[in-house]
Specification:
Blueprint lengths: L4 H21 L17 E7 L4 H13 L16 E6 L10 H10 L20 H7 L3 E9 L3 H4 L11 H11 L3 E5 L12 H11 L2 E5 L1 H7 L5 E5 L3 H4 L16 H12 L7 E7 L1 H7 L3 H24 L4 E7 L2 E2 L3 E2 L13 H5 L5 H8 L1 H11 L1 E2 L5 E2 L3 E7 L7 E4 L2 H9 L8 H12 L8 E5 L1 H4 L3 H4 L1 H9 L4 E5 L5 H5 L12 E5 L2 H5 L4 H18 L4 E5 L18 H17 L3 E3 L35 H10 L6
Parallel strand pairs: 1-7, 1-8, 2-14, 3-4, 3-7, 4-6, 5-6, 15-16, 15-17, 17-18, 18-19
Antiparallel strand pairs: 2-13, 8-13, 9-12, 10-11
Helix pairs in contact: 2-12, 3-16, 6-7, 10-12, 11-12, 23-24
The protein binds zinc ion.
The site of zinc ion has 6 residues, from α11.
Length: 642
């Protein structure tokens, strides 16, 4: 129990009861958007206790109680958070997840295959929320009590088909540009097959502007003026190992709580945008794999101490902070109770937990297989496996947006809800990744291709069929008209997939996007700027490509199909006006097709902007156009398609 918590939560607890009642009638509660009146989370902590099921938490709490001779639970701090939920953890490939598939889900909102890091099952790299938040100006911190290229932290910055490719994963860390990393160093630096693996990794870390601090004192000495920080353990020998397990840890060795404290110190700026911190208690899992209850107890208590540091920060910034504590999966199939008899006795672990720290032999003895098995039997606690199980894991949350984590949710909801709590742009859809995977399998874009780039409006067009002569002419040179539209895409999503297009230096790009950005509540200025940013990147990376920037089409709200576009009709002409002006400055051809889609054509331009609507005869939903609409469109741009 953290100091003062009970008192400050009395109000919140009432609110939670009310919320629980709401959940009862609304199963889809977790999917809903945060109350728009609620303040946005500016500082977010995601704590992942690796392998930490509810039984592991209970084991620690019951031991704290039993060691004092009490028959109850002495609560840890985070279990007293006002919101509690349960998350399912299955992966894309297995009903029982591994750590990397689960961490990918927690980092990206997408299920991945067991064994993979940060990639969609079709091998397309996912954009983790850390990258999205970094793009939005948040500071990013990633830390763990194990090595920093291990599965859980890796999934927040890396993309790899194999979680064991530690060297490759380590080399991706400095590429991320994230602001703070901490904990154990690089597993990959010990790779014997790679010549000078450690030098290569640390060389890149330095090249990319990271300051390496060894221990807290060194961090304090180096933090001023450091752009980005990597905080590891003191002593070169231990630098690339996990932090010392709690059993046998000596005073002065780096702890996860110290790493979290340093991260907050490094990332917090009073007038900044905010930060996202992921901190993993990685050794709860390792101890559970060994079925070592004493280790699970100590690692869970230590994890709670790291969370307590974040909770202190929360108390100073209660309206702007969100703390979420969960696990990636359960490890060991731990049960409190074994065979018959309605009791268990955890005091048998007390000697192991309090073991003589100066006596390494004593410590090793308590970790040995025989002793572990004997103590488990004596304590009457059971384990079903030395691997993971498929049982859902607990979620504890406090702070702004925390109520979204109540009830039964899926692990993929956690990053989505974090983004909602921060009011950050939603991450990409399944369809986006599927289309990207299809594009990846097709012939790469080449210099004789004409590319139609955009969102659903572009995806819905059968562009090659509108211009058969052009298609035939391109075919002779090995080119074609290529559809690169994706339903739901935004300027950000398009920017993130330009690497599938620009390296081939296509002949021409017809570009149109914006409607989804409008539904994401951005201003006309920021949408126009975002679109022009894409245009500038095309110019820069493929200077020979002819760019046609097409205007947004009008919408028709009377169809009542797109709630997020309510009241936004006028914005479409407003954005177009900005685009026209900016396109001129960029010396890019702007094609204004907007007037052609109005109910009475260009004549409607004399109406106020909010009455200029998409002709109801060429749309079925007020946003997309029918075959007749595509006819108008394809004719309007025919002279440019050559
Ligand atoms: Zn594990």
């Amino acid at each position: 129990m953290y100091a003062n918590m009970k008192h400050s939560f009395s109000f919140l607890k009432k609110a939670v009861c009310l919320i629980a009642a709401i959940i009862f009638v609304s199963a889809s509660f977790a999917q809903q958007k945060a109350n728009s009146n609620e303040p946005k989370a500016k500082y977010v902590f995601l704590f992942i206790g690796d392998g930490m099921g509810l039984a592991h938490v209970s084991l620690a709490e019951a031991w704290l109680s039993q060691k004092d001779g009490k028959l109850s639970f002495t609560h840890l701090g985070f279990t007293q958070f006002p919101v509690m939920g349960v998350a399912t953890t299955y992966s894309a490939s297995n009903i029982i997840t591994c750590s990397s598939a689960a961490a990918t889900a927690l980092a990206s909102g997408y299920k991945a295959n067991n064994g993979t890091v940060g990639i969609y099952p079709d091998s397309i790299p996912l954009t983790q929320i850390t990258y999205k938040l970094k793009e939005l100006g948040y500071k990013i911190g990633i830390m763990t009590s194990v090595t920093i290229d291990h599965a859980t932290p890796a999934c927040f910055y890396a993309h790899n088909r194999k979680r064991k490719n530690y060297f490759e994963i380590a080399m991706e860390l400095p590429e991320s540009g994230f602001d703070f990393f901490g904990g154990g160093g690089f597993e990959g630096s010990r790779n014997k097959e790679i010549k000078d693996a450690a030098d290569k990794i640390y060389g890149k870390v330095a090249d990319k502007g990271y300051t390496v601090a060894l221990g807290v004192a060194d961090y304090k000495a180096k933090k001023n003026g450091a752009g980005k920080m990597l905080l590891l353990q003191d002593g070169k020998k231990r630098r690339d190992s996990a932090l010392h397990p709690i059993i046998g840890r000596k005073d002065g060795e780096l702890t996860l709580a110290q790493v979290v404290e340093s991260a907050i110190d490094f990332l917090y700026e009073p007038d900044g945008k905010g930060f996202f911190i992921m901190a993993e208690g990685g050794q709860i899992d390792w101890e559970a794999h060994s079925n070592n209850a004493a280790g699970v107890i100590t690692e869970t208590i230590d994890f709670d101490k790291a969370i307590a540091v974040a909770y202190e920060f929360y108390k100073q910034h209660p309206d702007e902070t969100l703390i979420v504590v969960t696990a990636d999966h359960e490890t060991g199939g731990l049960g409190l109770g074994r065979e018959r008899g309605y009791t268990y006795d955890l005091t048998v672990f007390t000697d192991a937990i309090k073991g003589n720290k100066s006596d390494e032999k004593n410590v090793q003895n308590y970790m040995s297989r025989d002793v572990v098995d004997t103590l488990n039997k004596k304590a009457r606690i059971g384990w079903t496996t030395k691997g993971h199980t498929g049982i859902p894991v607990p979620v504890f949350a406090v702070g702004t947006g925390s109520r979204m984590f109540a009830g039964m949710i899926d692990n993929t909801d956690i990053p989505k809800n974090i983004m909602k709590a921060m009011d950050a742009t939603p991450i990409y859809t399944d369809h986006y990744y599927k289309r990207k995977a299809i594009f990846d399998k097709e012939r790469p874009i080449g210099p004789n291709d004409i590319v139609f780039l955009g969102n659903s409006l572009t995806e819905g067009g059968n562009w090659a069929s509108y211009y058969p002569e052009v298609e035939a002419k391109l075919a002779k040179k090995g080119g074609a008209i290529r559809n690169r539209g994706i339903v739901g895409d935004t300027f950000g999503g398009i920017d993130a997939r330009l690497d599938q297009i620009l390296p081939g230096h296509p002949k021409t790009i017809f570009f149109l996007t914006g409607a989804n950005d409008v539904s994401h509540n951005l201003t006309a200025d920021s949408i126009a700027n975002g679109i022009i940013k894409v245009v500038r990147r095309i110019k820069r990376e493929s200077p020979g490509t002819k760019i046609y920037l097409q205007s947004l089409l009008p919408i028709n709200e009377s169809f009542k199909r797109y709630r997020l576009l309510n009241g936004k009709t006028a914005m479409f002409s407003e954005i177009n006006a900005k685009l026209e002006k900016m396109a001129k400055e960029e010396k890019v051809t702007f094609i204004n097709i907007y007037p052609l889609f109005l109910t009475n054509g260009p004549a409607d331009l004399s109406l106020p902007a909010d009455q200029q609507v998409l002709n109801p005869n060429i749309t079925r939903d007020g946003l997309h156009v029918t075959k007749d609409g595509y006819k108008i469109w394809s004719e309007a741009i025919r002279k440019y398609v050559k």
